[in-house]
Design goal:
single chain; alpha/beta; Rossmann fold
Length: 244
């Protein structure tokens, strides 16, 4: 039987808000919300870059009949997570697929681990068919993780620049959360990850557990990305141009 810590680690869709999930609840909810927006845009063969456990595979396939093949791609080896369930592995330099092979691609919380993001995006671009869609999410407000393989935190401007250099067009980038969502996410991280002593941690957990739903409900995302805009993370879409 799977224990609770393993269940929390593996659950990305219906994770509850409780004292054991405060550090991941906000980010997983926001990413899954973006996956729900992305799912109708996928079609044909879908490549999941940096697939990990492929947490969204069942949801995507159950809610989009236009997808005829789901391909999970991950690193050849990883000390961070199990890559054995991936359909394909790669060396982070060359995706083992021919040009114009897949119709759709996605990368959730992957690009921040790419030390040469433009080169990675060029590979995604290469294997996409003309007119293909690429969906992505990246963190902005998040602690160092999977060290030493944590490379970047992107602004919308730097992310757009990398995508354009790779050849993508019709780039649409949105915020995963604004000021309130960022505060909710930070509170959850603070109370679980900052080594509070047991008693204040117990008290603050109760308070923050009540505060997070209110903060998320009253969050206002600003996708104009003006001065002093706050973001918890980003998601978006980019397309490979059609060949005329």
């Amino acid at each position: 039987m799977i224990n609770r810590s393993e269940w929390i680690k593996e659950n990305f869709i219906e994770i509850p808000l409780d004292g054991n999930t405060l550090q991941v609840y906000c980010v997983r909810k926001a990413i899954f919300d973006s996956v729900q927006i992305a799912t109708p845009r996928f079609f044909g063969s879908l490549l999941d870059v940096g697939c990990g456990q492929m947490p969204y595979r069942e949801y995507i396939l159950a809610n989009n009949q236009k997808i005829d093949k789901y391909i999970g791609l991950d690193m050849e080896s990883s000390s961070i997570h199990d890559t054995s369930i991936a359909d394909l592995t790669w060396d982070a330099k060359t995706i083992p697929l021919t040009d114009n092979f897949v119709d759709s691609a996605m990368a959730t919380e992957v690009l921040e681990h790419c030390f040469e993001p433009t080169e990675t995006l060029k590979e995604v671009f290469r294997v996409l068919k003309p007119g293909g869609v690429f969906f992505f999410t990246v963190p902005f407000l998040w602690p160092l993780h999977e060290t030493p393989y944590d490379a970047y935190r992107y602004t919308p401007f730097s992310l757009k620049n990398h995508l354009e250099k790779a050849g993508f067009e019709k780039i649409d980038i949105s915020s995963l959360g604004g000021w309130h969502a960022s505060m909710a996410q930070m509170l959850g991280l603070w109370v679980t990850e900052s080594n509070l002593k047991p008693f204040p941690k117990k008290i603050m957990t109760r308070v923050i557990k009540k505060a997070i739903p209110w903060l998320l409900k009253n969050d206002s995302k600003n996708n104009e990305f003006k001065q002093h805009t706050m973001i918890s993370g980003l998601f978006g879409f980019a397309y490979k141009p059609l060949i005329s």
